[in-house]
């Protein structure tokens, strides 16, 4: 007597058919899925925590570097948790999207309950670790960041203008965390340049998504925008950030450092112009990809960092 016929192996799409995913992927595949759902490529944004210590000329201080590294790591943990929660909340909508249906949670590789539970754990772990390290300022910034991202996931992402401000605010909090974690003063120049730069990048992201509907993920807020309006926001933010950066470079420095900061205006303006060009082409929907893949932007950013770094050293 022959044995029972072997059961066919369920495909990835079949595993994602149910809301929580009914398949039972192996542990290595599940672990890779969880890591992918945490979107490690997006963690490059957390390098903003280096900005304040670097501009203060304290980045080489071992104590400062230690706290900065901790801030970076905890923001990566917090970001991973919020991405898991966001994907758990949006799983049903993501399955109907051409690109997002391949995400680990939407495809069923990572079950929705697991994503939600692990996301909640990571979200709670980040500020708790800062508290255990007895850094109340870092814990407070992390709590503010998490509160803003949770509000964005549940509400703000569906509100025009509010969604842009919320995402830009997350970038600003990352930059603030690096200075506050080590007790460095945050100047008004730093705050204004970072805020306007974040607004420029996020407005460009929304405009690129509007120009390329497949990348926008069906965001409800996009229905309220036009490319003309978002282009005006870009123009306002870019004009303001360039003027503010020029005033900071020319008015706040003297001596040998002044020449270097003045020279840094050129790559700074060129980076802004490059971003405008890419957005017009519909490329800027993933700003971190620009930094990782666009060679002209990388060259300009390297030049800017070298000039500002030398200016900080001489100053």
TrEMBL record:
It is found in: Membrane. InterPro entries: UbiA_prenyltransferase, UbiA_sf. The chain crosses the membrane at residues 64-85, 105-131, 138-155, 175-202, 229-250, 256-277, 297-314. Residues 1-25 are annotated as: Disordered. It is a multi-pass membrane protein. One of its GO terms (molecular function) is glycosyltransferase activity. GO terms for cellular component: membrane. It comes from the Bacteria. The keyword Transit peptide does not apply. The keyword Cytoplasm does not apply. It holds the Pfam family UbiA. Keywords: Glycosyltransferase, Membrane, Transferase, Transmembrane, Transmembrane helix. This is Decaprenyl-phosphate phosphoribosyltransferase. It comes from Actinorugispora endophytica.
């Amino acid at each position: 007597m022959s044995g029972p016929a072997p059961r066919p192996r369920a495909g990835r799409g079949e595993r994602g058919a149910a809301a929580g995913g009914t398949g039972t992927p192996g542990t290595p595949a599940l672990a890779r899925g969880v890591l992918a759902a945490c979107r490690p490529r997006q963690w490059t944004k957390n390098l903003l925590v280096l900005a304040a210590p670097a501009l203060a000329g304290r980045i080489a201080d071992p104590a400062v570097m230690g706290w900065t590294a901790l801030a970076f790591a905890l923001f990566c943990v917090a970001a991973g948790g919020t991405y898991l929660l966001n994907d758990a909340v949006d799983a049903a909508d993501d399955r109907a999207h051409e690109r997002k249906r391949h995400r680990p949670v939407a495809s069923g590789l990572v079950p929705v309950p697991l994503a939600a539970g692990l996301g909640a754990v990571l979200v709670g772990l980040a500020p708790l670790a800062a508290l255990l390290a007895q850094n109340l300022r870092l814990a407070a910034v992390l709590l503010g960041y998490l509160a803003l991202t949770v509000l964005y996931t549940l509400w703000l992402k569906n509100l025009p203008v509010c969604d842009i401000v919320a995402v830009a605010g997350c970038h600003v909090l990352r930059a603030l965390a690096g200075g506050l974690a080590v007790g460095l003063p945050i100047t008004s120049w730093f705050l204004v340049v970072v805020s306007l730069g974040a607004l420029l990048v996020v407005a460009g992201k929304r405009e690129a998504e509007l120009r390329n509907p497949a990348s926008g993920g069906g965001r409800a807020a996009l229905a309220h925008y036009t490319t003309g309006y978002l282009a005006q926001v870009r123009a306002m933010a870019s004009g303001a950030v360039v003027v503010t950066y020029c005033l900071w470079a020319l008015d706040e420095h003297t001596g040998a450092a002044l020449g270097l900061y003045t020279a840094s205006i050129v790559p700074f303006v060129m980076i802004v112009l490059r971003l405008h060009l890419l957005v017009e082409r519909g490329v800027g929907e993933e700003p971190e990809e620009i930094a990782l893949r666009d060679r002209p932007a990388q060259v300009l950013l390297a030049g800017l960092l070298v000039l500002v770094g030398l200016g900080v050293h001489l100053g």
